[in-house]
Design brief:
By secondary structure, the chain is of the alpha+beta class. 31% of the residues lie in helices and 46% in strands. The strands form two sheets. Strands 1-2-3 form a three-stranded antiparallel sheet. The radius of gyration is 18 Å and the shape is elongated. It starts with a strand and ends with a helix.
Amino acid sequence: MALNKTVTQDKVEIVGIYKNIQIRDLIKVTDGDEIVSESYKRKVINCQTKVGGSWSDTDVSSESSEVQAIASACWTDAVKSNYRNFMDAQELSNQQSE
């Protein structure tokens, strides 16, 4: 039989005070009804992204509709502001210790 690979988003979690979204994909390879291999791929999405010194909302348009809805509900203006302030303070602290 032919091998078949499927990727399924099997876990989405909201973690921490900055509402990071953790996504786990299950990658399954089957040969007919027999499972040949299973593995996982994980990623974390933060509410804000800094590029060239400027902060912007993280683009989640390529994520599933479920992840988009979670981001919309959890990533309030206060969460984003707190995240930016924390990350900027970390960056400043790192620069001062160099």
